[in-house]
Amino acid sequence: MLLNLQRYIDNHPMxxxxxxxxxxxxxxxxxxxxxPDKFKKFLPTYETNQLENCSQLExxxxxxxxxxxxxxxxxxxxxxxxNHNDQFExxxxxxxxxxESLAENGLYLxxxxxxxxxxxxxxxxxLR
Length: 128
Fold this sequence. Notes:
about 5% strand, mainly alpha, two-stranded antiparallel ribbon, elongated
């Protein structure tokens, strides 16, 4: 995705451009699919979509590894934008589409109706 972003910027050297990127981020239950192996910093992890067969530690570690990769992705994106400071005034807004439950109170993922959802599902991260 970042390679294509660099190409797009290079092909639009003047004028205003708006770029929207959609990353899978930490969309569960397949958190293990959201990062390459070299970003597996927290162990043990799991490699299944069946969270009921995983320990809470495995779920949290696998989720956290996906967060590590998202941090890496954002750092690379910021570097690309900073490399064009002489050409553009750039802004980056990163926002998640929902919060996520990681087995707190026996709840997983993000599917509860808003009025019943815990804080962890309603709290949406934002970086600007």
